[in-house]
Amino acid sequence: MGKKYKLQADHTDAILDIRRQKQVLKFVAATTLIFFVPIGINNILIGEVMLGAILLTFEITLLLEVSAIVYKRKGFFGHTLPLILLVTSMIMAIHIFGTLATYWVFPIIISVVFLLPIKLALSANVILLIGCTLAALPHQHLATTSRYAFSLLATAVIAHVIVQAIKRLQKELRYLSERDSLTGALNRHELQEHLENVCTNYPISSVALIDIDNFKKINDQYGHDVGDKVIKQVVGVMYRHMEESDLLFRLGGDEFLLVLPERDQFAAKNTMIYTGQHIEQSEYPEEAKVTISSGVAQLVNKESVEDWVKRADIALYQSKHNGRNKVSLYSGPLPSNKEKETSKFLI
Where is the composition biased (Basic and acidic residues) (predicted)? Predict the structure, then answer.
């Protein structure tokens, strides 16, 4: 089996999504090119060859890394080498030029927090704080250097606190945008994108369309509050018996779609039979009797997402037609255009 399918995105330590990361990195690269290259050349000309060489090497490594990220290629060095060169050049500059070079550290601290993973940013800022303070000490009174150190510390702490607050808010907003508020299942907002990704990268995969049997009767007999509890409990059972790579979407009401990457229709059918048994055996409010019907379809080579889902829809209809509380496989020809137009599950 290949790598497990996971939710995308962008759900990483970074504060910016990929597109905005590229935009910001282009700006950073252009800004450093304008400032650091002339400074590096000037240092070489005035005899500070080591400092000038480090600044120019930093700029070269940064440009290479940004180019790799922008054009979706594998990076040459990762974050580490450009960061080491940048931190080293700042400490050296303060050691050589004193107070004149200390002002560059503040924008660097903030940029590091916004652009790099938190552990790397923390490490870099701790080294910057200690190194720049020690480098500045011979050039200033102790009181002045202490104020400088505290101002660096305050800048780093405030930047880290703000960025972490933004990341937490982003995580909450992302969850609300992707998840159904009642059940916690994924909503259909990103269903098309995930299905297309599975079609492209996981050719042996299946989907299952799922209906809670006679759910309207449960609502009519016991009320919508009980109906909501039943739906939440059914989803909870499904999550307990899903693989880590599976994706469960709520399409609306009592209708769900389960994506099973890297599983053929027979493995998917076994999963649905097993899950259906546990749903039927669970205890529900008001002693409601709950079962599910499902239709399973395996991805066919060069098949569209719409055809794939439609075949699962037809299989679900077969399960209902045969008495409900069943799992059916789609085994017929690809659906016609007329059949696709009648599917309520088209995305």
Answer: 337-347
b/e sequence 51-69, b meaning 16+ C-beta within 10 Å: bbebbbbbbebbebbbeeb
- In sequence order, the β-bridge partners of residue 297 are 207
Helices (H), the chain: 18-45, 49-70, 80-97, 105-115, 118-136, 142-178, 191-201, 215-222, 224-240, 265-281, 305-321, 337-342
Rg of the chain's alpha carbons, rounded to an integer? Answer: 29
The secondary structure of 272-325 as a DSSP string is HHHHHHHHHHS--GGG----EEEEEEE--TT--HHHHHHHHHHHHHHHHHTTSS
250 beta partners: 256
340 band by pLDDT with thresholds 50, 70 and 90 = very low
The yes-or-no verdict on residue 167 having pLDDT over 70 is yes
The answer as to whether 347 is a domain residue is no
How many domains does the chain divide into?
2
The token pair at 95 is 């050691």
Residue 282: inside a domain: yes
In the block, tokens 């059914």 appear at 234
Q: Can you give the residue range of the structural domain that contains 327?
A: 188-342
What strands, in cross-sheet order, belong to the sheet with 247-252? 247-252, 255-260, 206-212, 292-298, 327-329
Confidence of residue 342 (pLDDT cuts 50, 70, 90): very low
Whole-prediction pTM:
0.65
What is the SS3 assignment for 201-213?
HCCCCEEEEEEEC
For the chain, give the number of residues.
347
